[in-house]
Amino acid sequence: MEMKNINLPLIALRGMTVLPDMVIHFDISRKKSIHAVEKAMEKDQKIFLATQVDPEVSDPEYEDLYHVGTLVKIKQLIKLPNSVVRVLVEGVKKGTLEGVTQADGMLVAEVAVNEQPPQELDPTLNKAMLTGLRELIRQYALANPRMSRDILKQWLGMNSARKLLERFTIDYPMEYRERQHMLELDSLEEMYEYAGKLLIEDTNVSRIKEELSEKVKEKVDKHQKEYILREQLKVLNEELDGEDDGSEIEEFCAAVKELEAAAEIKEKIRKEIKRYKILSQGSAEANVERGYIETLLEMPWDKMSEDNRDLDAAAQVLDEDHYGMKKIKERILESLAVRNITSKGDAPILCLVGPPGTGKTSIARSVAKALNKKYVRICLGGVRDEAEIRGHRKTYVGAMPGRIITAFKAAGVKNPLMLLDEIDKISSDYKGDTASALLEVLDSEQNSHFVDHYIELPTDLSQVLFIATANDLSTVSRPLLDRMEIIEVSSYTKNEKLHIAKEHLVPKQLEKNGLMAKQLKFSDKALESMIDGYTREAGVRSLEREIAKVCRKAVRQLYHGNGELNEEVKSIRITDKNLKDFLGKVKFKPENIHKKNEVGIVRGLAWTSVGGDTLEIEVNTMPGKGELILTGQMGDVMQESARIALTYVRSITSGRKYKVEQEYFDTHSIHLHIPEGAVPKDGPSAGVTMTTAMLSAVTGIPVHADVAMTGEVTLRGRVLPIGGLKEKLLAAKTAGMKKVLVPSENRSDVEEFDEEITGGMEIVFVSEMKQVLEHALVPGNQDK
């Protein structure tokens, strides 16, 4: 045997063996292997591949490798992410590894290669081997029907035993150790024997596996047949006996008899129970049917609670729980009075609208308590799927009723009080329009036959007292708004906040923090200072947090760290003097009136989400090119009001009264600014304020410092009505304003306000800008 020794770059393979004539690709990531490939590509693209004995060895040496490998030629290199290289190779010939060295950051193999061509077999031996291999291959193919027909045809079509064995070693599914053993065999007889052994073993394994599968299948079929027969026998017995032996079916039938519902509803439930009987127990469909029947039986179809008919007792409960809120209390008591007389009457659908923290949600609980109704709450904030309201069809996996029916079922009666909280925060997307789904629920003419997609039976919601809450009606759709009776819950006055704090918030926080009334007392002045200096809101939520903060600090002083009472401090009294010790420095300071009348500065009134506020508008004029400069983060509507104000001022200053030359507006620029520039502002009600400030700046006539105003102005100087008047008047009173100019069309609103709001201020109703200017501008300066 003529052998030749050559040195080649070496790659150690993990878990695979490459044979001569095999075309295969593999990935390499070790630096030594990558360097070896790069070195081979610089020369003749030849490299030697040897398989590791243990694939887990990360840095193999000569002893860690099988000593018989394959000389291959690199066909293609592809660089992949994470420093991985994919190599495509073609096996050339077998070689023996004589030694391994390291050089240039790679492994170098000393390989002995046989240069003599393989000897041809004796024809008789070749035919015997071919016949034996073909027979074994056919038996293997019969035992493995999934074997590739193309490979089988290729194998059986070969006439050389050597080529068949070489092809078999490449194509046959075997482990890399078995393929390595075939590579190490030198004679065809040894290769033939090993190949025959592999074929016989795998054929027997396949036959045994098939026999085991048949036995398992027979047993499963037998059990399935017995199960079906048992179920059929069960149905036959039920038909013969006329009764259901199953305890669950009996419970359902008994529940139907006791159910307070119409005859058609009971008949529907009985049909569902019959359908449930014939379903296979444990199946998915049976579970869905069981859940559906249980839901129908839990529904309060005709079950009602008895409402409280005592008007005086109901009024007392409402007064105890909430201070003020006259409109809401009157509306509830009116409904109760009508029901007492007629013994019927559709439940009203009320919508309480107001700023956060004004008690909209808590009044609903008090109403339920006053009327002796079951109370359920549904939070609609962020709901965007129509199925959340109407439910899912039973055909869907995990189907369930909508929130309305779920709450209805939880109440247990058909006449509960159902609170739809945050109705202005529902939204719509591709899953449906949630607001439209609520239209049927909140329509007293339709909700007596509300159909949920899951229940599929008409449900009477006409006896439900719906109360919805919202912060802003501008986001509620008009059709939905039309179905509700709107009751505005406006901001609390300072006096109302004081009463609420004394009667409700302080006792609540004392109890929550484990204090007795004699341990911690609040003076009225302390609560007033807390309202004015530490909160700025329409409701009382922040006020309650400040009271809770005082209570927590009081607990630290009244008790030691181990929970024992501090004998040195027996009680604490909170006054306006020591309030800073508990709450720190004052957070808010009211904007009081200016001490003197000024030119171009006018006090307006604004409505915000946390109540009313005063809005100081400043105007300056300067030499320029007739520009109108607007600053203070004004919205589009407010910017339009400013342009209307400028046009009106130009139209009235050309007369004898103000004597302003028209060239003045071409040679001067007007800058209008609203302080607190970081806060966005918008709305038309600052129109009269802007007009007055502009006219004052242009003419140099001062404006009364103790006058505030609100109203929208038109191009011809008419004053239009505005909203949020109660909050605006409260803000003016807090700032110490003596006179407030209000649109004439808001007179009816002012007449409804208590003396507590309007007292101490002169309310002047105006319909034109001329009247505004007469009251706002300082007399004696208008002829200058």
How does this model look, in words?
The protein has a 7-stranded mixed sheet with strand order 20-21-19-18-22-25-26. Strands 1-3-4-5-6 form a 5-stranded mixed barrel. The chain has a 5-stranded parallel sheet with strand order 8-9-14-7-15, sandwiched between helices. The termini are far apart. 43% of the residues lie in helices and 19% in strands. Helix 7 packs antiparallel against helix 8 (263-278) and helix 21 (636-652) packs across helix 23. Strand 18 (601-608) and strand 19 (611-623) form a beta hairpin. It is built from 27 helices and 26 strands. The longest helix has 54 residues, at 188-241. It is of the alpha/beta class. Homohexamer. Organized in a ring with a central cavity. Belongs to the peptidase S16 family.
Annotated CATH topology of the largest domain: Rossmann fold
Structural class assignment: alpha/beta
Number of strands: 26
Overall number of domains: 6
Tell me what portion of residues adopts beta-strand conformation.
15-25%
Query: What's the Cα radius of gyration?
Result: 46 Å
Helix content: 40-55%
Strands ordered across the widest β-sheet: 20-21-19-18-22-25-26
CATH architecture of the largest domain: 3-Layer(aba) Sandwich
In CATH, what is the homologous superfamily of the largest domain? Answer: P-loop containing nucleotide triphosphate hydrolases
Count the helices. How many? Answer: 27
Q: For the terminal residues, how far apart are their CA atoms? A: 129 Å
